[in-house]
Amino acid sequence: VLVGAGWSDDAIVELRKALRRDDGRNAARIHGLLGLAYGRRGDAARAAVHLQQAIALDPDSAAPRASLGDALRSQGRDAEAIAAYRAALRAEPQHRDAANNLAWLLAAAADPALRAPDEALRWAGVAVAATQRRDASLLDTLAVSLAAAGRFAEAVATLEEALALLPAEATERRARLLQRRALFAAERPYVEAPRR
Q1: d(CA 12, CA 140)
Q2: What residues in the chain have per-residue pLDDT under 70?
Q3: CA distance 48 to 52
């Protein structure tokens, strides 16, 4: 119910109450949900605190590690986000979101020292395989990874696949993919702009 509530203030209040009432059996899950809630509301610092608590309480769980990666990335802490995604994938090697987000950073990070195109391709492949090539966002990441590895023709073809999956009303997403396709056709990789 709380997840469907759109991470409202009321949902966070209820999760905090549940955490206070909890006998310890559900604390990791509640901290994880609070981390997600704060993250979705744009409070990456609070999200990170709760996700680190969830990890401490359930060190074998991939989900809070992947969410911590998201929170760190939103703060511009890409190196730490990469470490969190890698930890999530050690816990669950087929975790689609961690694989996709790690691949994106390894392919397109603003800091060239963080880029690792071969590893990006590996993880993008894991994410795309999980959906049988039916998710445009995951195909976009694969295309960015292919371009980072210098495989531009494959990157263009993969973006064509992604474009074919987009609904007609997804005009902004389509525009972004078309911009990347133009880059790849010119044999230039996509690299994120540095954050300030």
Answers
A1: 33
A2: 1-8, 196
A3: 6
